[in-house]
Amino acid sequence: MTFTTLHKINKIFYFTTLGLYLLVYFGMLFQIVLGIVQITIGIILLTKMKELSKEKKRKILLYWLLVFTAFILILCSYTLENVLGNFLIIFLFPMLIATYFYFLTANITSDSFLNAEWRNLALFNYEVDAKILEKYIPVGTEIDLWNNKCYVSLVGFMFKNTKVLGVKIPFHVNFEEVNLRFYVKRFENGEWKRGVVFIKEIVPKKAITFIANTLYQEHYETQKMNHKIIEDGTTQTFVYQWKNKEQWNTIELETEKKPTEIEVDSEAEFITEHYFGYTKIDEENTFEYEVQHPRWEQFKVLNHKIDVDFLGNYGNDFEFLETTIPTSIFLAKGSAIEVKNKCKLAEIQIQENLTATINSY
DSSP letters of 64-109? Predict the structure, then answer.
């Protein structure tokens, strides 16, 4: 039996249980069936452990630890006279385990945290003094330059067909994002890994902000947002807006309709071809995650408009961007993307990489 088939079976019984919970009593009864099905699938997964990554093996073992804990608690619940306590132990806790197991089987053969499409990326790029970014640089990385220029970029784009751990979350599938980012690199195993660091990422969904800030320790913020695409015979206009402290911010690009390839070694390639994300946890720890996507195309930009309160959105360090003319502006077509699970760079590994970097010069 394939992993996909196991997940489909799990999915049918999981959502049937959720549906029956609308009738309360039937949901509680069917949860017993769901538990039996999931335990059976869990046993099958134990026989397939050799086919799974270490991380998936740990998650399966965690599932069994949770099942064992739930079983002990249920046995102990018979001595309780507290109705609420019994409900939590007998029904709520097992249902939380069932939800965990559903997400586990949905992403059992992948090490991806997120799958989505990033579409119509409006990139406003500014040359800045690298010194203003020093306090934001994650340990183990350094500023990545293009032709001796240091960049920060204001980027607006669309998330589409978003799946977290292989699952589409209702009302969180398609949404806007605007972020301010800069570019770094890290030397590992004899080669440079090029990535980005986000100053702030703005989205319209509170759940996205919670997940990103909690699991990835990113710098997400929830704001009211909207977007639109205006097409005429020969051009198209992309507009992204977000509301901060009762003030609407706007970035707008008018482009040609026909996409073109991004030239090798060009400024546009530098801005778009960074395949890692780095997060500064503190002065000693850094998170790294990989972003996979094909090489993008771009639309030629004809006109642009930007009306952004950089002080209100990004603080004193970036207030100067309000009066700074962008060095370059691009509109990337985008593509499907895959964000891998994060990893924490151990301090000793960081020190080794820094030593290797020094020796490479």
Answer: HHHHHHHHHHHHHHTT---HHHHHIIIIIHHHHHHHHHHHHHHTTT
